[in-house]
Write a structure and sequence with these properties.
Blueprint: H1 9-24, E1 38-40, E2 43-45, H2 49-58, E3 95-99, E4 105-107, H3 109-114, E5 118-126, E6 130-140, H4 141-148, E7 156-161, E8 166-170, H5 171-174, E9 180-185, E10 188-189, E11 199-201, E12 214-220
Parallel strand pairs: 3-12
Antiparallel strand pairs: 1-2, 3-4, 5-6, 6-9, 7-8, 7-12, 9-10, 9-11
Bound molecules: the ligand Nc1nc2c(c(=O)[nH]1)N[C@H]1C(S)=C(S)[C@@H](COP(=O)(O)O)O[C@H]1N2 and molybdenum atom.
């Protein structure tokens, strides 16, 4: 009889883990403890970050259904800027990725544009009572994380913007395949008013979570007292759609 490698204890615990990861979906990183807690019917598992990244890549959260290109509403996205529109020198621009990562990054725009391109047509929803179907093009944020290699402590992601806006996400939502760092809107270069050179775009979070003019992405182990520009004024932190 030939030995069956898939019958090894490692293979069977991996299969079980992947099944559990698929079942628990987006909520599984939201525990308040310092360790990553994976709640399962049989107890609690602590997963090192690289296994979590593998699981996200092999078995990502379910994608949100997208709209056809014909559904795009070109005039419906209202520019919503609370402070000012910053001036960014795209030659000097560097996207900083730091904090709980093994490989801190300073990416110029050419390096971002070299990463695999993704486009999606989704609904943008603002809490102020409007929505718009928009096509966004750019890179999956999780591709940036794969370059930066989060440490096993990473659980949250902070975004800093050139206008002083700031926000934070749970790492699981940030790893969602439809969470993009976008540089195109409706098939054209992203206008400065909409956050060029790089903004967040995602069908799983409200508009105020989608920071424009992102300059820095910092992974952290904890949520800091400053959680976000609107969140610190009482708006919901998770803000899921
Ligand atoms: N840096 C920054 N990002 C931001 C904002 C902002 O004022 N500054 N407004 C937020 C809000 S409330 C919404 S609805 C969207 C609006 O994106 P848009 O201006 O491209 O329509 O951007 C979000 N991201
Ligand atoms: Mo908004």
């Amino acid at each position: 009889m030939t030995p069956d490698p898939s019958a090894s204890p490692e293979a069977s615990s991996r299969r079980r883990f992947l099944r559990i990861a698929g079942m628990t979906g987006a909520g599984w990183l939201l525990g308040a403890s310092g360790l990553t807690l994976l709640e399962t019917p049989v107890g609690k598992l602590f997963m090192p970050i690289n296994d979590r990244l593998d699981a996200w890549l092999l078995n990502p959260q379910k994608p949100v259904p997208e709209f056809p290109v014909s559904a795009i509403e070109p005039d419906a996205l209202i520019v919503n800027t609370f402070r000012f529109t910053p001036t960014i020198d795209t030659e000097k621009f560097r996207l900083v990725v730091d904090g709980e990562v093994h490989h801190p990054l300073e990416l110029d725009l050419a390096a971002v544009y070299r990463l695999p391109f993704t486009s999606m047509v989704i609904r943008h929803v603002c809490v102020e009572g409007w929505a718009a179907i928009v096509q966004w093009g750019g890179v999956q944020l999780r591709d940036i994380f794969q370059l930066a290699q989060p440490t096993e402590k990473a659980r949250y992601v902070y975004f800093e913007s050139a206008d002083g806006y700031y926000g934070s996400w749970d790492l699981s939502s940030a790893m969602h395949p439809q969470t993009l760092l976008a540089y195109q809107k409706n098939g054209a270069p992203l206008p400065i008013a909409n956050g060029a050179p790089l903004r967040l775009a995602s069908p799983i979070k409200l508009g105020y979570k989608q920071s424009k003019w992102i300059t820095r992405v910092t992974l952290t182990n904890q949520l800091l007292p400053r959680r976000g520009y609107w969140e610190d004024q009482g708006y919901e932190w998770f803000a899921g759609l």
